[in-house]
Amino acid sequence: MSDLSCRISDAEWLVMKALWQESPLTASLVIGHLKPDTDWSPKTIQTLIARLVKKGALGVNKEGSLNQYYPLVSQDECMRTETNSFLQKVYGGSLHLLLANFVKDDNLSPKDIQELRKLLDRK
């Protein structure tokens, strides 16, 4: 799957998260998953699902009169794409600047610092 299919909006992320947790799901079940956390109408959620199908992020199985939707891209793939997009947009692609910004953050706990060191040591 190309990186382009992972380029999804914040609203589409919520739909994808529901389907990454459990799939395949009908549109009604996706609506049920999102209802507690959003004030979106069922029509809005159906529109988001249709956009994700068009982008190639979701597939659809037609079972009788019901459509069951499932992810065609993994959450990890989309996270990598979003991370690279963020890195490019905010830091001009510089991983050094991103890490320097995080390290300068006063909110890093000793545990956070230790985990960062471990990650860097493994590289």
From TrEMBL:
Pfam annotation, one family: Penicillinase_R
Record GO terms (molecular function): DNA binding
One example of a Gene Ontology biological process annotation: negative regulation of DNA-templated transcription
Tagged with keyword Transcription: yes
Record flagged with keyword Electron transport: no
Keyword annotations of the record: DNA-binding, Transcription, Transcription regulation
Note the InterPro entries from the entry. Answer: BlaI_family, WH-like_DNA-bd_sf, WH_DNA-bd_sf
What the record says about family reads: Belongs to the BlaI transcriptional regulatory family.
State the protein's name.
Answer: BlaI/MecI/CopY family transcriptional regulator
| Organism of origin | Desulfosporosinus fructosivorans
